[in-house]
């Protein structure tokens, strides 16, 4: 039965108000979930995300349930995010997939005014995916020197060696392991990665300048034997 005209006139505005209210609420919720927190009063901690999982897809950093990188700015494979400022107490810190699945969840307060890197590696296909979280701060090197460390973050890799100008700097580093920082005289270096105990270089980084007082992390990435975008290689992050 069709309602009398006088009732239709009264109920139509109420119905429209309900629809409008739902739309406004949805808009507010969406804005809240993608607004990064701006640290204040010098209380700054920074997180760098390095997505090294070839089949993971884009990742998003969340802090205290707020998304830190935009919906259309995921952290994609092979490209470090750069350091993102967060409040060190805004736990949990998460990495979520594009399907909003929490892949990494860290529920501890971070060290104030320090830098961290979270590497994602392994493969979703064989359930070998894992994360490596590093504290990127360390004591200042001796004057005239820098500090370098090595992270074996290449999926399916075996133990690796890394040389600096032909001399072994790090040896027998297993998958997902992180070496300690090692001091090196400031200067120009050719870094090479080898399978432990072999002499054929898997990857090299030539003519890199280690600067006085700087800290660096060299990491392996990709998969041995692949020739596509997931080919084995190496990269470097300036931590300080």
UniProtKB/TrEMBL annotation:
Keywords: Membrane, Transmembrane, Transmembrane helix. Residues 147-224 form the DUF4397 domain. The chain crosses the membrane at residues 12-30. InterPro entries: DUF4397. It comes from the Bacteria. This is Uncharacterized protein DUF4397.
